[in-house]
Amino acid sequence: MKVVIASGKGGTGKTTVAVNLAWFLANCGRKVQY
């Protein structure tokens, strides 16, 4: 599964969403590549 988080402008919280999603998936036993 590949997940892409994108937005055309800055300051929309992309990094926050990406980090929290990666943490959640890792805790659910999914492989996460940084």
Oligomer state equals single chain
Number of strands: 0
SSE string: H
Into which percentage range does the β-strand content fall?
A: under 5%
> Could you give a short account of the major beta sheet?
none
Range of helix content: 40-55%
Q: In angstroms, what is the radius of gyration?
A: 11 Å
Task: Describe the protein in words.
- The protein has one helix at about 15-25.
- The protein has about 35 residues and is mainly α.
Write a concise synopsis of the structure shown:
The protein has one helix and no strands.
How are the SSEs ordered, and which strands pair?
Elements: H1 14-27
Keyphrases for this structure?
34 residues; mainly alpha; 41% helix; 0% strand; elongated
